[in-house]
Specification:
The chain is mostly helical and 130 residues long. It is 85% helix and 0% strand. The chain has 2 helices and no strands. The protein is elongated, with a radius of gyration of 45 Å. The mean pLDDT is 78. Pfam families: DUF4577. Keywords: Membrane, Transmembrane, Transmembrane helix. This is LSME1 protein. InterPro entries: DUF4577 (IPR028099).
Length: 130
Amino acid sequence: MERPSLEFNLPDAHEEGKLYVVDSLNNLNKLNVCPDESQRSLDEEENSSGIGERMAGSNTRNQRLFFVTFILTLIISLALVSFVIFLIFQTRNEVDQISSRLLSEKKSIEELKKINSIILKHLNQSGIKE
């Protein structure tokens, strides 16, 4: 199989055509160069297959560790959110109790004011002066 010549005479081509030809030549050059590099990397991979297996085991271990950490983080987050919701409900119940006590105390104070004004009127009408 003959290799095509990489040299072309481009004096008659337009600028866009020149750019296209140059890009095509670059792509062709990459195709010719890449197989050698990929073959070298395959040879290195064969020589270091034990390292690759150890790396794969380490990668699986890292994935498991990440998954366990992720699940634990989710569980802890869920527990914290549940606790915060519990505290919100507790606080709301306490505020409701305090407000009901304040309302009952307000009613008692108003009743005491009425009783005090009735006593003062009765004392003023009876003519008792101090």
